[in-house]
Design goal:
Layout: H1 3-30, H2 37-43, H3 54-63, E1 66-73, E2 80-86
Antiparallel strand pairs: 1-2
Helix pairs in contact: 1-3
């Protein structure tokens, strides 16, 4: 195994438990609201650092735990962005 594959695997194993915690925190932050990635990041105290939530949003959509529930114009970028909502039980 080459060094980059080994270090990538080690990093993944270290971060794995943190991913689940962040996913749960995102679901909690969403509650019954429909929010953009930026709104979720701000609500979670990350300011506008959406890199703290975007990868977990992708994972949660792939798992079927949240869904894209529309499009909204971002007041910061003036671009159309996805709005996320927790999938009902």
């Amino acid at each position: 195994m080459n060094i980059t594959m080994e270090t990538r695997r080690e990093s993944h194993e270290f971060v794995k438990p943190l991913k689940h915690t962040r996913q749960a925190d995102i679901i909690s932050a969403l509650g019954n609201d429909a929010l953009t990635a930026r709104e979720i990041a701000i609500k979670m105290g990350f300011g506008e650092d959406m890199n703290k939530v975007r990868p977990r949003l992708t994972e949660l959509v792939e798992k079927g735990r949240i869904k894209v529930d529309g499009i909204r114009c971002c007041p910061v970028t003036h671009k159309r962005v996805a709005v996320f909502k927790v999938v009902g039980e």
